[in-house]
Specification:
Number of domains: 2
Catalytic activity: deamido-NAD(+) + L-glutamine + ATP + H2O = L-glutamate + AMP + diphosphate + NAD(+) + H(+)
Distance between the termini: 69 Å
Pathway: Cofactor biosynthesis; NAD(+) biosynthesis; NAD(+) from deamido-NAD(+) (L-Gln route): step 1/1
CATH class of the largest domain: Alpha Beta
Enzyme class: ligase
CATH architecture of the largest domain: 3-Layer(aba) Sandwich
Bound molecules: nicotinic acid adenine dinucleotide, adenosine-5'-triphosphate, glutamine
Strand order of the largest sheet: 5-4-3-2-1-14-15
Radius of gyration: 26 Å
Shape: elongated
InterPro entries: C-N_Hydrolase, C-N_Hydrolase_sf, Gln-dep_NAD_synthase, NAD/GMP_synthase, NAD_synthase, Rossmann-like_a/b/a_fold
EC number: 6.3.5.1
């Protein structure tokens, strides 16, 4: 029995499905953790989290088991024991497990019991729930290994405590959401005091499709005090020293508390990390986007430059007859400030060609939305041609306010591979743009000074699809629209409840509800984008397209 343990906490990125690279990264961490007794890595570190329907593929399960076996064998070389997340099939059922390996042997396997099945999570679809897990005696210390959601509910930690666990080491795959770091901290502090056990909470970092993982791992002692706060948004290996006190209870003696990014920097970081990993891991040489001189494309471009570097971002201004001199100038200045390639490709010729092609079928009809949308679609055709020719991914620039009410053209400005603003309401877009124009925190690849001219932030938003068009002609001003949308979408309130909370006219709120529900078909055809809040358009909110229900009818 020992009275001291050194536990290395490896807050790591992962690449879903890349068993070889993930295993190599774990072994690299093990080499760096020399001197530790045990190396802990995040949930499903070997397969990447979330593996989704890969788990339903027998070949993937076989290769995962083989890779886990090789990882266990690799611990025969000198170095710490490893506790790593993998998948184990027992009696034909797949389990999300944590394997403890030392000196070339598998010492212990524990299965996740609580499978999250809400919001973006779908674990019951692919995994079976394990039994209430037992602690394992490692070097004479009874250790419990609750896996992520196991810690969010009471049963597992309290069972482990009752079964004699002396500490809880919890591997996690917990995606970022605004304010979730505070929630985790409160929750785990409460778990620590309620069970009387110190807790190491280890989360992954990096982007995976719509999810961004912030890390922000912690150690909380049994008195509820957070003694370790690891960094957010980056990998980190931390050696933590633990000691059994004279009362027989374990404490983490390491004291190291990093400061986490405050709001709105955390939102911006989530966008940067998610886009960087999406673009790099899907093999694009860079991104391109329509740079209109408006705030959505300016902020999207800034995030792309901060994620990938200016040489990987390409802005294309595509003026029509409705494009103002101000927009042309703002787009050019925007590109100059970001240091990105900027091309001007007028779409007038193509607009005229379409008008000639459609002259006969459109005869006798006044110009309307059809002509407006043709412009957005011709821009899409132009951008996709560049994407096909040069390989850059088209970055979609629509924000959550627009996507909520369907204020975007299907197969037009909605086209693209990924969106960083998809879960950001327009008021958040304004906030982030002002913030980024004033600050450039460490680690971002863009310029230290302004990223867009102030005029882009201060001028009224317009789609410039017809003369003198302003967003506010069709929609309430964004500072009034967004609270309505937040109520209807994020909080699932009825029209009456939103009216009561916001003081808006019932007719306006009912109209917005109608637009939101009607635009579901558009959202189903929208590209993925990083989740920021508790109810993103994607996995979090799954509404029927064909739907007659209205609360404001
Ligand atoms: N339930 C459903 N399932 C499948 N398809 C459905 C559908 N309901 C309509 N449709 C189809 O959808 C089409 C209509 O959608 P769509 O062609 O997009 O056109 P629509 O939504 O009518 O117009 C686009 C709107 O977005 C605004 N906009 C455009 C571009 C940029 C911005 C901006 O500021 O960023 C704003 C523009 O001013 C206009 O109000 C029609 O073809 C209709 O048949
Ligand atoms: N003249 C243009 N040149 C290049 N791209 C354009 C142009 N107009 C629109 N786009 C593209 O279509 C997207 C939709 O923008 P639009 O101007 O219609 O409204 P918006 O939502 O206010 O966006 P933004 O704030 O970027 O202007 C833009 O973000 C941009 O990517
Ligand atoms: N991987 C998991 O079990 C995640 C679920 C958990 N409640 C979280 O978001 O942190």
């Amino acid at each position: 029995m020992t009275d001291r343990l050194t536990i290395a906490l490896a807050q790591m990125n992962q690449r879903v499905g890349d068993l070889a690279a993930n295993a190599a990264a774990i072994l690299d961490m093990r080499a760096r953790a020399e001197g530790a007794d045990l190396l802990l890595v995040p949930e499903l570190q070997l397969t990447g989290y979330p593996p989704e329907d890969l788990v339903l593929k027998p070949a993937f399960l076989r290769e995962t088991e083989a890779a886990a076996g090789r990882l266990v064998e690799a611990t025969s070389a000198p170095g710490p024991a490893i506790a790593f997340g993998s998948i184990r099939v027992v009696d034909g059922k797949a389990y999300n497990v944590m394997i403890l390996a030392d000196e070339g042997r598998e010492l212990f396997v524990t299965r996740k019991r609580e499978l999250p099945n809400y919001g973006t999570f779908d674990e019951k679809r692919v995994f079976s729930a394990g039994p209430l897990p037992e602690p394992f005696t490692f070097k004479g210390v009874r250790i419990g290994f609750p896996i992520c959601e196991d810690m969010w509910l009471r049963d597992v930690p309290h069972h482990l405590a009752a079964a004699g666990a002396e500490m809880l080491l919890s591997p996690n795959g917990s995606p970022y959401e605004i304010d979730k770091d505070d929630l985790r901290r409160r929750l785990f502090s409460e778990r620590a005091t309620a069970t009387g056990l110190p807790i190491a909470y280890l989360n992954r970092v990096g982007g995976q499709d719509e999810l961004a993982f912030d890390g922000s791992s912690m150690v909380i002692n049994a008195d509820g005090e957070r003694v370790v706060q690891m960094r957010d948004w980056q990998e980190q290996l931390l050696m933590t020293r633990w000691q059994r006190g004279t009362n027989g209870r374990w404490r983490c003696e390491t004291s190291e508390v990093a400061t986490l990014a405050p709001y709105p920097e955390d939102v911006y970081r989530a966008m940067v990390v998610a886009l960087r990993d999406y673009v790099q891991r899907n093999g694009f040489p860079g991104v391109l986007l329509g740079l209109s001189g408006g705030i959505d494309s300016a902020l999207s471009a800034a995030v792309a430059v901060d994620a990938l570097g200016p040489d990987k971002v390409w802005g294309v201004m595509m003026p029509s007859v409705f494009t103002s001199e101000t927009s042309l100038g703002d787009a050019a200045e925007n590109a100059r400030l970001l240091g990105i390639r900027h091309d001007v490709i007028p779409i007038g010729g193509a607009v005229d060609a379409l008008a000639a092609m459609l002259k006969e079928p459109f005869a006798g009809r006044k110009p309307d939305l059809a002509e407006e949308n043709i412009q957005a679609r011709l821009r899409m055709v132009t951008l996709m041609a560049l994407s096909n020719k040069f390989g850059h991914m088209l970055l979609t620039t629509g924000n959550k306010s627009e996507m909520s009410v369907g204020y975007a053209t299907l197969y037009g400005d909605m086209a693209g591979g990924y969106s960083v603003l998809k879960d950001a309401y327009k008021t958040t877009v304004f906030k982030l743009s002002r913030w980024r124009n004033e600050q450039c925190p460490a680690g971002l690849l863009g310029p230290e000074g302004k990223v867009m001219p102030d005029s882009i932030i201060t001028k009224p938003p317009t789609a410039e699809l017809r003369a003198n068009q302003k967003d506010e002609d069709s929609l309430p001003p964004y500072d009034r629209l967004d609270p309505i949308l937040h109520g209807l979408i994020d909080r699932e309130l009825s029209v009456s409840e939103v009216v009561a909370e916001t003081g808006e006219q019932r007719a306006i709120v009912a109209e917005m509800e109608k637009l939101v529900l009607r635009a579901e078909y558009k959202r189903r055809q929208a590209p993925p984008g990083v989740k920021l809040g508790g109810r993103n358009f994607g996995r979090d909110r799954r509404y029927p397209i064909t739907n007659a229900f209205r609360t404001g009818a």
